[in-house]
Amino acid sequence: MTKTNFKDYKLSNEILKSLEMLNFKNPTKVQEQVIPVALQNKDILVKSQTGSGKTATFGIPLCELVDWEENKPQALVLAPTRELAIQVKDDIFNIGRFKRIKACALYGKSSFAVQEKELKQKTHIVVGTPGRTIDHIKEGSFVTDNIKCLVIDEADEMLSLGFIEQIEEIIEALPNERVTMLFSATLPEDIDDLSKRYLKNPTKIEIEAKTLTVDRIVQVAYKVEENAKINLLKDVTIVENPDSCVIFANTQKKVEMIYNELTDLKYPCDKIHGGMEQDDRIKVMSNFKKGYFRYLIATDVAARGIDIENITHVINFDIPVLRENYVHRIGRTGRAGKEGRAITFVTKADDRRVSEINSYTGRELVLRQETPSRKSVKKLKAEFERKLSEKPEVKMSKGASMSCEIMRLHINAGKKTKMRPVDIVGTLCSIEGMTAEDIGVINVQDVSTFVEVLNNKGEMVLKTLQTKNIKGRPRKVTMVEM
Ligand code: AMP
After folding, report:
1. What is the rounded distance in angstroms from the CA atom of residue 61 to the CA atom of residue 54?
2. Where are the annotated segments for Involved in 23S rRNA binding (predicted)?
């Protein structure tokens, strides 16, 4: 019998409720095949395309299997980039929200001490990039004794980024008695080797896409001289008039150049590349996800796995150096059943790359000799300028529908005044109509505490706490915007 409903997997009510709130009605193909196996604690090697619902494929079983009572981390997910680590952590947080799963992300170029503090609190699931994960293991801040499950996400990308030794070092630090899941978009020989060395009799699941590039994405390529690219970009954006667009270039310098050009023309845009501070990169991605601007100019740091709703266009200002990156880049659009357009600029020097991409995707990238005509650019310019001056529509975050039911409260007391989660639970449960089931994630920091109140009871709790003592004293309690 094929499973078509999450209820068939005997998931707990808390997880089912999150899936319902996330509007995950039925499992995707990869979820359908992997979740039942993962729930039986078996090792799995999964080949699956980006955008297939891969994160929830391991996120759901991880959230289901962790024991809430246990304070030390029970699962580790390794991801190749910082952006992906943060995104996976957020997705896991949403899936585990009603079970009050605590997930934390470890990644470089960001405060070690802050991550260390997070790890000291109850943490069920750790998502990390290899380098920083090793640092925390070495420092003793990430205790791995209780890790029961390891997920290696985007394994092919990890290996091509040269992370193999670090991954092995991490695996050596984990208990032998554990489940390992390896996810990869492709299964080259080195992935096979990795799987042979570290997976025990794995179930191999391959989700074959008909072609590597998603059929919903319309792919167009323009022949252009290098020095005419910027003008072509201007014309193409006018003709296409995207709602939300990622423009990929191969170097940081070019990203900067395009960003400066488009900023001068008042395009609502921002940029992301590896030369920027991590905090700035996170902010840019977050603002783009929220739809605060329409054009993101990026190097390949933004190409992999990043899931942003409703990107209508991807423009390859430069054809990618690696053919795999073509698939990842254009996979930013056409997600979750939507249509997308991918436009690639091709110079004379790119012929070899085009044929490599063609043989890799099994499709012929049709080259247009004609760039948009002056007439059509002129005709469509007014409409383009109208959209440029209009504020983009703000996108709802994936967890937004949940937030209607959940209110996050800030209490102005924390560890320094000896506040503990149990004090918060005690106070909240003493409010009439409240039970432990209505309390979500509690995060006690130095001088602040954050607590989530579930099941639409936030207003009532907030009102009551204006006059009720917490740990013997009145405290300032406010709602936090989510
Ligand atoms: P991923 O491949 O993990 O990047 O997921 C691609 C997109 O599909 C994300 O926006 C997920 O939130 C969404 N998604 C994952 N599983 C489901 C599902 N069962 N139903 C609907 N959307 C899903």
Report:
1. 12
2. 407-482
